[in-house]
Specification:
With 169 residues, the chain is mostly helical. Helix content is 73%, strand content 0%. The radius of gyration is 24 Å and the shape is elongated.
């Protein structure tokens, strides 16, 4: 029986079997990663009411621009690949506009939803480029779409720590 298994067995033992011995044992030290996490959390200052990180502002503007552009192109009847886009394009535009509004108000749920939409978008547009594009097209795609989108995604993750999850009343 290994040391971890003996420790688990001792911790799970009923109260009458060596409980006094278990109470003398010192509490386990937090792991190094938990200590680093606690130090990082201690450095964070929650945002004052009405303030939002720069990345969230950029995300809100990007979401609003793409949401309005998508909706306008869909309403104008622009064809993509010879076909009219489905209603899903309008739903996606609506989601972008709702997340833009929420991010403008520095809402955690909106940043999380936009990150989900951004991540899904980056993956779905990257796969065809990897499979069918030439090297030059792929390099242009990475420079124009993937690098800025990935950078925004990264900074939004960091900004979410300052926005923090809302507390339950």
């Amino acid at each position: 029986m290994g040391r971890r298994a003996r420790r688990r067995a001792a911790d799970a033992a009923p109260a009458g079997s060596g409980a006094a011995e278990a109470s003398r044992r010192p509490a386990p030290r937090p792991s190094r990663s938990e200590a680093r996490n606690a130090a990082a959390r201690a450095k964070l200052d929650p945002l004052p009411e009405g303030e939002r990180p720069h990345a969230v502002t950029v995300g809100a503007v990007v979401a609003a621009l793409f949401g309005v552009a998508n909706l306008a192109l869909w309403l104008a009847g622009v064809e993509v690949g010879g076909e009219q886009p489905s209603v899903f394009a309008m739903v996606f535009s609506g989601l972008l506009l709702v997340t833009a509004w929420g991010m403008w108000r520095a809402r955690y749920w909106a940043v999380l939803a936009f990150e989900g939409l951004l991540g899904i978008t980056l993956v779905t547009v990257t796969v065809p480029v990897i499979l069918w594009a030439s090297v030059l097209e792929a390099l242009v795609f990475v420079a124009v779409v993937l690098a800025p989108g990935g950078t925004l995604f990264w900074f939004l993750v960091k900004a979410m720590a300052r926005i923090q999850m809302p507390r339950r009343g």
